[in-house]
């Protein structure tokens, strides 16, 4: 199915131009004249991307961006006559993925739209990535873990270690490699710190932390995450 683009632009000529180029590229397009109408359309059907004019009457493009954008929201490209750095940064802070300064080339806008959609698709694919090792399920991008279907709360370090092990199931991962997986922490941690984090991790995902079946020690090397024999 063609991707659905919502265009909110109060200049009829500009709106028609943008719509014409998007339709020509195979997108499904709905055009509305203001922010309130944009929010109403998005409430009925979530667009794949919204192109929002910043300077609209009533509910402006920045407010629509704030309500629609964000980490898991609608992808947003802002159209703005404001070219100051502060205005652009504000739009990005509110959840915009890109901005185009007026006057602009419609072909450039379409190229920006395609770029944002490609990036959004990649992020969605990452968010959907799931690693299963026995009863443990890990969603790396969402930073979520379940054990036998039950959510497990891990610290950042515990999650990063588990994720590094889950990406190489049944294979030994050295303490040094696990230390390097702790983004931004390797400078002040030692390899022995890994042992402490693994001990705490075992308390959360092992039925019996004193006799670990999932996170096993590989003596002289590090650790590995395995599927227990009775789960095979």
From TrEMBL:
It holds the Pfam family Trans_reg_C. Residues 128-227 bind DNA. The modification 4-aspartylphosphate is found at residue 53. Keywords: DNA-binding, Phosphoprotein, Transcription, Transcription regulation. InterPro entries: CheY-like_superfamily, OmpR/PhoB-type_DNA-bd, Sig_transdc_resp-reg_C-effctor, Sig_transdc_resp-reg_receiver, WalR-like, WH-like_DNA-bd_sf. Residues 128-227 form the OmpR/PhoB-type domain. PROSITE patterns: OMPR_PHOB, RESPONSE_REGULATORY. The keyword Phosphoprotein applies. Transmembrane segments: none annotated. This is Response regulator transcription factor.
């Amino acid at each position: 199915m063609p991707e659905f683009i919502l265009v909110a632009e109060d200049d009829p000529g500009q709106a028609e131009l943008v719509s014409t180029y998007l339709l020509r590229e195979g997108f499904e397009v709905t055009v509305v004249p203001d922010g309130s109408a944009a929010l109403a359309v998005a409430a009925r059907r979530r667009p794949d991307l919204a192109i929002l004019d910043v300077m609209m009457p009533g509910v402006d493009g920045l407010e629509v961006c704030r309500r629609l954008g964000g980490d898991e929201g609608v992808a947003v490209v802002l159209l703005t006559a404001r070219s100051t750095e502060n205005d652009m940064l504000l739009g990005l802070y509110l959840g915009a993925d890109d901005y185009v300064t007026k006057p602009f080339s419609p072909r450039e806008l379409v190229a920006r739209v395609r770029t944002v959609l490609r990036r959004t698709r990649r992020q969605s694919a990452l968010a959907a990535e799931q690693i299963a090792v026995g009863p443990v399920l890990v969603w790396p991008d969402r930073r979520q873990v379940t054990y036998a279907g039950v959510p497990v709360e891990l610290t950042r370090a515990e999650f990063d270690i588990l994720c590094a092990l889950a990406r190489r199931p049944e294979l030994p991962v050295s303490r040094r490699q696990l230390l390097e997986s702790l983004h931004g922490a390797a400078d002040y941690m030692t390899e022995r710190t890994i042992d402490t984090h693994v001990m705490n991790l075992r308390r959360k995902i092992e039925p019996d932390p004193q006799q670990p079946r999932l996170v096993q020690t590989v003596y002289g090397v590090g650790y590995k995450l395995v599927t227990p024999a009775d789960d095979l």
